[in-house]
Amino acid sequence: EEEDDDEFVIDEGEEEEEQEDEDEEYGSDDEEDESDEEEYESGEEEDDDEFEDDADVDRPFVRTAPNHMARMRKHMDAVVKVHCMHTEPNYSLPWQRKREYSSNSTGFLIEGSKGQRWLLTNAHSVEHHTQVKVKRRGDDRKFVAKVLAVAFECDIAMLTVEDEEFYEGVEPVTFGSLPNLQDAVAVVGYPLGGESISVTSGVVSRIEVTPYAHSSHELLGVQIDAAINGGNSGGPVFNEAGECIGIAFQAMGGDAENIGYVIPTPVIEHFLTDYKRNGHYSGFPSVGIRWQKMESDALRASLKMKKDQKGVMVRSISPTSDAYKHLKENDIIVKFDGIQIACDGSVPFRSGERMAFGHLVSRRYAGERIELEVLRKGRLRKVTVRVDAHQPLMRLHDDGNDPSYLVVAGLLFTVCSEPYLLSEYGEDYGTESPTKLLERLEYGYKQTLDEEIVVLSQVLACDATLGYESHYNAMVTKCNGVEVRNLRHLATLIWECTDDFVSMTLAKGDVIVLETAAIEESTQEILKSHAIPSPTSPDLADVFAAPKPKKSTRKLKKGQTRRATGRNKARRRVKANP
Asked: Which of left, alpha, beta for 434 (phi over 0: left; psi -120 to 50: alpha)?
């Protein structure tokens, strides 16, 4: 065996000499061996080429014609490396930001319908950016880029470079159609492990509605088996024709291997069209409902559905949506713009494929109207509903903005969001966060468009907050008996309070009371001791800049309140002037 191994690694020249010696000593076995040897000698160069091709037979792109690689290479110079400096908000101390850090990702050049030159990359690649620079392939210079639009829902960002020299000799990438299963693809970018451009190949393995990790939004996604590593984010994915069929943006973690995800061209085109129409990104629309599958025979019978009828049940409706005016709970949505919805919530998608009907909603634009065929109490009817941008009660993303905050004595209030819970409780916030907050996150609806979840983030020690130090991350429901709508409303209630005490009720029923006269002095003390520049975030500064109402000195009769006295005066005026 050792001798065989040694013969296996012998150089090609030595192997040929041994074979000639062996032939001279023993001769050839038959005429076929001699003819084979002649064919080998005459076609040696062709066989070598075939051997090299066969060595890479498992790579889809090598199997295709050389013209394919040439078509893709002409767009390679349009793929750039994105260098970004980030500074994230500090949700625990919202008046400041965290330490700055850098990241590297990928982007590529496209051309707009009117000749605009834009760069596309991922939204998470430029999140909380302070500076963005891009570098072309083979160039040692970095050009400063400007962020034009960021779509956190679909994880796409649009950049531009004002320096005309950056675009010299670069041909923009062109988009292709949605690929089919088993289509060969190549991911181009600047992943970890080196500085030069990298190309990995694979095939399309799945196309379906996919949760986007950056936003928790569900949109159309393409799964491929090509490697997508850190740094590939924002890079183009090419098909065999050299067309871009998507943007690499996330990969499956854990024990999974070579499972990457691509933002397909329909989602990219929706983002670009939205930006062209509005001059900014307005978001993917939502009907404003939660629905339930109708696969149970008992459930179908209870809602008077016939055996041949299909659809999904409306479980709840957002009060701020247009659907709230036209739909009712327990309605069965049978068709969406004339397309039949199955009992599992799927709709036909190309030949032999089905897709979640949410894909139909995501194809529309905010403000457009859709037609729904609804089964209500056994009768079919058609309703027209306007779809609007999704507005959850608890924000799933901060859109790159700093968090709002309010300091009252030693009480720090802020707006609760998913990034806030992630900052406070880490990756396990889904199980570690207070139940009241998780309930609002998962199932809450806005009652008004300006509604927010206000939380007491923490209590900074001072004389005014003595005894309240154990309260933190608690939802505030009332202030002086009035339901709190948002953080601005809470600031207004506190500022305009003329009573001797300010009372705040928390979600668990606990009450925090402060002396009105001591609030201003205690607040200034806290600002100085904790180096807080302002008692409010910039968006709330106008509330405390308004004149403070003066406390009324009018004496009231026994059993009366000031509000009652005002009503009595109004009644007397009506009687005197019928």
From this structure: beta
At 84, list the tokens.
């970004």
The whole-angstrom separation of Cα 21 and Cα 38 is 16
128 is catalytic: no
**Among residues 198, 233, 404, 522, which one is catalytic?**
233
What's the pLDDT band for 114 if we cut at 50, 70, 90? confident
**Which residue in the list 155, 183, 388, 398 is annotated as catalytic?**
155
Q: Is 155 a catalytic residue?
A: yes
Residue 233 clears pLDDT 50, i.e. is over it:
yes
* DSSP H or E run through 506: strand 501-506
Partners of 545 in the beta sheet? none
Please name which of 212, 363, 337 lies closest in space to residue 285, comparing C-alpha atoms.
363
Q: Is 124 a catalytic residue?
A: yes
Question: Of 251, 518, 565, 552, nearest to 411 (Cα)?
Answer: 518
C-alpha distances out from residue 464 to 64, 80, 130, 468, 515, Å: 75, 56, 38, 9, 8
Q: Which of 68, 75, 86, 124 is catalytic?
A: 124
Q: Which residue has the tokens 């005490």?
A: 501
Q: Is the pTM of this model over 0.85?
A: no
**DSSP H helix total and E strand total for the chain:** 17, 29
